[in-house]
Specification:
CATH class of the largest domain: Alpha Beta
Radius of gyration: 23 Å
Oligomer: single chain
Largest sheet: 6 strands, mixed
Bound molecules: prephenic acid
CATH topology of the largest domain: Alpha-Beta Plaits
Number of helices: 12
Distance between the termini: 45 Å
CATH superfamily of the largest domain: ACT domain
Number of strands: 15
Number of domains: 4
Strand content: 25-35%
CATH architecture of the largest domain: 2-Layer Sandwich
Structural class: alpha/beta
Order of helices and strands: HHHEHEHEEHEEEHHEHEHEEEHEEHE
């Protein structure tokens, strides 16, 4: 390297080394304080959870508010997610269940949401994710609930209806699908495997590029990647992370039909969450099948000035054209206006279930 460049870089790098040492010192001070918080919590509730999603959201939002740059605001969120994750891990280990095997988008969502200092519990199905959290094998789970191309993830909606678990948080992920094979090309490939949602999200591209190769649905994209790693006649649609995890080569990158293809995931668990200042509340409602019933059902929301951010229906399987309505609203169930609206909904609806209030992403 040329000497004048070296001479200019040296003091700047020394300054960075010194700043890093200061950051490290502060991180250790933070970690020790979090350990003290953990001791206080254990003293009050020996078996109680350490995780406080509302506090984590507040810490990150407050820092983003304070941030004057040039450190990017998104980096504040991702760096502090990891700092909090590591501090939380010193207080108590957190196990997160998700649809596996390793390398799935659910795993990515789990790590982005809870940070890397967690234990992953890959499960063979969404049902098993719910069961693992209900049975206590994991304290929290991460499941997809809607995709911007394909709409609702129906199995998750049905499981939310039958489960006592609460929604603890949400995380939206940009989903970039890749076509993967052992060789990095499609010679000798006789079928393409993926989760049905991924096959649907890439159907135009597949129809155009590989119309002659049959497609087969499997339980997850990372399962498709695992199978492709064992058999050169199989190609998989999965993430670039799955390619690394399962030692596959990328045939084509970003093959989803919509470049802005996003999936929203829900964190689920047994906690009730306090208001964080910017929250969402999710509910399931049902009304008898008669004219105007759905319109009336929602009137307590507008009457109390509560905004609805999502409305989804699922057949109630009674054969009577009855539906369960999945409704997301702005605000926390303890906010006075929301509380009033919820009380009215509960008294007027034939079915009412509160899935939880949680920090909005
Ligand atoms: O404030 C707490 O309750 C903590 O345990 C500390 C902390 C943090 O590192 O900031 C860690 C875990 C909790 O989920 C929330 C915040």
């Amino acid at each position: 390297m040329d000497e004048s460049l070296q001479a200019q870089l040296l003091p700047l790098r020394q300054r960075i080394d010194q700043i890093d040492a200061e950051i490290l010192d502060l991180l250790n001070k933070r970690a020790k304080t979090a350990q003290e918080v953990g001791e206080v919590k254990h003293a009050h509730h020996a078996e109680g959870p350490v995780l406080r999603p509302e506090r984590e959201a507040q810490v990150i939002r407050q820092l983003q508010h304070l941030n004057r740059g040039p450190f990017p605001s998104e980096a504040v969120a991702s760096v502090w997610t990891e700092i909090i994750s590591a501090c939380r891990g010193l207080e108590q280990s957190l196990t997160v269940a998700f649809l596996g095997p390793a390398g799935s988008f659910s795993e990515q969502a789990a790590f982005e949401h809870f940070g890397r200092s967690v234990k992953g519990l890959p499960c063979p199905s969404f049902d098993e994710v719910f069961r693992s959290v209900e049975a206590g094998a994991a304290q929290v789970g991460m499941v997809p609930v809607e995709n911007s191309t394909e709409g609702a993830v129906n199995r998750t909606l049905d499981l939310l209806l039958g489960s006592s678990l609460r929604i603890l948080g949400e995380r939206s992920l940009l989903i970039k699908h890749c076509l993967l094979s052992k060789t990095g090309n499609m010679q000798g490939v006789t079928k393409i495997l993926a989760h049905p949602q991924a096959l649907a999200q890439c159907q135009n591209w597949l129809n155009r590029e590989y119309p002659g190769i049959p497609r087969e649905p499997v339980s997850s994209n990372s399962e498709a990647a695992r199978l492709a790693s064992l058999d050169p006649t199989i190609a998989a649609i999965a993430s670039d992370v799955a390619a690394q995890t399962w030692g596959l080569e990328v045939v084509a990158l970003g093959i989803q039909d919509d470049s802005q293809n996003r999936t929203r995931f829900l964190a689920i668990g047994k906690l009730d969450i306090l208001p964080s200042g910017r929250d969402k509340t999710s509910l399931i409602l049902a009304v008898p099948n008669r004219a105007g019933a759905v319109y009336q059902m929602l009137s307590p929301l507008s009457e109390n000035g509560v905004s609805m951010t999502r409305f989804e229906s699922r057949p109630a399987r009674t054969g009577q054209w009855e539906y369960y309505f999945y409704v997301d609203i702005e605000g926390h169930c303890e906010d006075p206006r929301v509380k009033k609206a919820l009380a009215a909904l509960e008294s007027q609806c034939a079915f009412y279930k509160l899935l939880g209030s949680y920090p909005a992403q």
